[in-house]
């Protein structure tokens, strides 16, 4: 596995990105930063190259990948149509943390779409991702660059921990911006449907296309979600995560109860809750008044606990407004238990 450190726009950067692009043209797999999380990219038009992504991640083959392109023109050779509402969303939010599901014309490698008749596209808004796409002149199939089941990587070191020795290279562009994956929107029907909440909020989408639905499977967890990837174990930390819903007093009594059983507790919470909490280990992940910061720090925090130091991780719940929808979606998936004060 090659490692390239990308600092500000230097001559060496150009060379590193060209080397990475050349490896992609040779059907190898490269990890690169995007504005959401690190992606694991391969030539989306080549079945064997794409197969290497599934292999490196240990990803189930029925879970389709997002195709990353440099601009909207590069989607056209692979889609049957761009429905008008998709067109509006593309204009408004791309490049950016949005993925649109479009009807496929069947020309993209069929392991990218896991045999579906639709294909997911995204135009990343990150200088390194953009230069890589420009340089290799290929659409890149790219899931998040973690081992399947682990939190998505927001730093090159996370990719290194999960995939070193399994992929051709890692472009290290520092910490990613949003910290959570893109919003996935199915644009093949009359009304756009959010299959996965993410960096672009439902409110933002509605300002551009009016009525937007959330996939009902997001609310009812026993329903089979339409984005195939949503059904697997996800974002798992090394110790069980309990998501706590209730007051600061209830949170404290839960910590005390577990500590009395002789177990080591770690807490992941806002600075506001931390100020009134007594616990052995407290990891502050931002302010209740700025959920975008909570999103930025979430996956790094989930990865920071080692099973040797912690028996149970307790995490605060956040309001499901704006990016809070995506934060709570990921935390609910990461959690083995939701502890509700009301019940
Ligand atoms: O921000 C992101 O989207 C990151 C960066 C690297 O771009 N990528 C990412 O990819 O999160 P991945 O593979 O971890 O998640 C892709 C999600 C999965 O839930 C998958 O099931 C869904 O998109 N998806 C892909 N193609 C689809 C399709 N044709 N129909 C429905 N869902 C699809
Ligand atoms: Mg993923």
TrEMBL record:
- Assign the protein's first listed, main location to one coarse class: cytoplasm
Q: Which residues form a coiled coil?
A: none
| Assigned keywords, A-Z | ATP-binding, Cytoplasm, Nucleotide-binding, Nucleotidyltransferase, Transferase, tRNA processing
Keyword check for Transferase, yes or no.
Answer: yes
**Which GO terms of the molecular function aspect are on file?**
L-threonylcarbamoyladenylate synthase
Top enzyme category: transferase
The EC code for this enzyme is: 2.7.7.87
Write down the InterPro entries for this protein, in alphabetical order.
Answer: DHBP_synth_RibB-like_a/b_dom, Sua5-like_dom, Sua5/YwlC_C, Sua5_C, T(6)A37_SUA5, TC-AMP_synthase_SUA5
Is the keyword Nucleotidyltransferase assigned to this protein?
A: yes
* Compartmental location: Cytoplasm
* Organism superkingdom: Bacteria
In this chain the YrdC-like domain maps to 14-200
Q: Which reaction does it catalyse?
A: L-threonine + hydrogencarbonate + ATP = L-threonylcarbamoyladenylate + diphosphate + H2O
Stated role? Required for the formation of a threonylcarbamoyl group on adenosine at position 37 (t(6)A37) in tRNAs that read codons beginning with adenine.
Q: Which family does it belong to?
A: Belongs to the SUA5 family.
PANTHER family, from UniProt? SUA5, THREONYLCARBAMOYL-AMP SYNTHASE
Return the protein name. Answer: Threonylcarbamoyl-AMP synthase
Organism field: Aquibacillus albus
């Amino acid at each position: 596995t090659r490692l390239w450190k990308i600092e500000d726009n230097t001559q060496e950067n150009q060379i590193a990105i060209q080397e990475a692009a050349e490896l992609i043209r040779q059907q190898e797999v490269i990890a690169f930063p995007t504005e959401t999380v690190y992606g694991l990219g391969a030539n989306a038009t080549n079945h064997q190259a794409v197969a290497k992504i599934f292999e490196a991640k240990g990803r189930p083959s029925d879970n389709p990948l997002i195709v990353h392109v440099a601009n909207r023109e590069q989607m056209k050779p692979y889609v049957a149509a761009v429905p008008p509402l998709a067109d509006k969303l593309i204009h408004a939010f791309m490049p950016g943390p949005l993925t649109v599901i479009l009807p496929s014309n069947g020309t993209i490698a069929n392991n990218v779409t896991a045999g579906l008749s639709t294909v997911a596209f995204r135009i990343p808004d990150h200088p390194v991702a953009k230069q890589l796409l420009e340089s290799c002149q290929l659409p890149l199939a790219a899931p998040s660059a973690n081992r399947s089941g682990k939190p998505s990587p927001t730093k090159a070191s996370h990719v290194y921990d999960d995939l070193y020795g399994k992929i051709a290279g890692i472009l290290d562009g520092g910490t990613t911006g949003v910290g959570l994956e893109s919003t996935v929107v199915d644009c093949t029907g009359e009304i756009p449907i959010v299959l996965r909440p993410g960096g672009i909020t439902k409110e933002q989408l509605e300002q551009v296309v009016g009525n937007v639905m959330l996939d009902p499977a997001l609310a009812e967890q026993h329903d089979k979600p339409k984005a195939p990837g949503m059904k697997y174990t996800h974002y798992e930390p090394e110790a069980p995560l309990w998501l706590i819903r209730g007051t600061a007093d209830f949170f404290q009594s839960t910590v005390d109860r577990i500590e009395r059983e002789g177990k080591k507790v770690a807490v992941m919470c806002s600075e506001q809750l931390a100020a009134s909490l007594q616990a052995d280990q407290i990891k502050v992940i931002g302010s209740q008044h700025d959920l975008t910061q909570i999103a930025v720090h979430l996956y790094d925090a989930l990865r920071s606990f080692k099973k040797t130091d912690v028996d149970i991780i307790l995490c605060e719940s956040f309001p499901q407004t704006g990016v809070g929808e995506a934060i709570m979606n990921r935390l609910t998936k990461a959690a083995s238990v939701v502890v509700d004060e009301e019940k």
